[in-house]
Design goal:
single chain; 287 residues; alpha+beta; six-stranded mixed beta sheet; 10 helices; 13% strand
Amino acid sequence: MIYKILNYVSLDRGLIKALENLDKKQQSEALRLSKKLSKGNANCLSKKEPMIKLAASLKSAEKTLSIYKKYGISEDIFRSTFDDIRIWCENFDNKGLDNIGWIKNHINFKLFKIGRLQFQFFKCRSRFLDFSKQPFSRGEKVINIHIPQGEKLNIDECKKSLCKANEFFKEYFPQFKYGYYFCESWLLCENNRKFMDENSNIVKFMNLFDIRCNIPYEKQTFERIFGIDMNSKSPIFGNDEEKRKAEISCLSENTSLQRSAKNYLLDGGRFGMGIGIINKDKCVGNE
């Protein structure tokens, strides 16, 4: 089976070989499931093997590419957006694709990587927000910002990305009326300011947003800073404070961020997540 998307996505050679070695029955199954995935049915792949998920996603992405061409969206944006398949395969030790729940957004023409950041069509219904205090209502259209891994969080590139996004959605999706960008991430937790340098790119990134809410959820930060699997049963995530502190004392100190974060935790600090918004009309370059 030929995978045209491999002209745009640079997968590990061993993984490409594994795709080539799928038997006819597996290929037929992947092709059948790819058609369902293209129609928005990602559940059909939930219990399938990672290689079947990957094969089906690559075939389904061929239809997405044709939609890009129909809209006149550049192949560069398609290539940049679908590079996430490579990233998530690498996260799964190049054994296939496991996170189909995320990649479905790319395939279904709902998410685009424009410069440094990713932008997703979204209706905001966050259970953490008090919508009586927000500039938009529950369920209102916004653009959800994601920060893909693998690149430095260069603040100038983030600003350029936001400006380009304004132009992108205005040109290609003028019918999608939105007033705000929305982001929910560990990068936006206000507690970060207590252990991060004010001139760090993370704090500068935070300063781009009007932060509306902080969430006491630590796992994402532990994963990003210390590499602790969010699904692990580490005492760090438990309720026993003595065991938590003992585990924290063993955390690595290979970077200045790890050292400052560790000291912050040992002093009783807590990580979290934050929700921030940006008025699209006040993006840098649009004032």
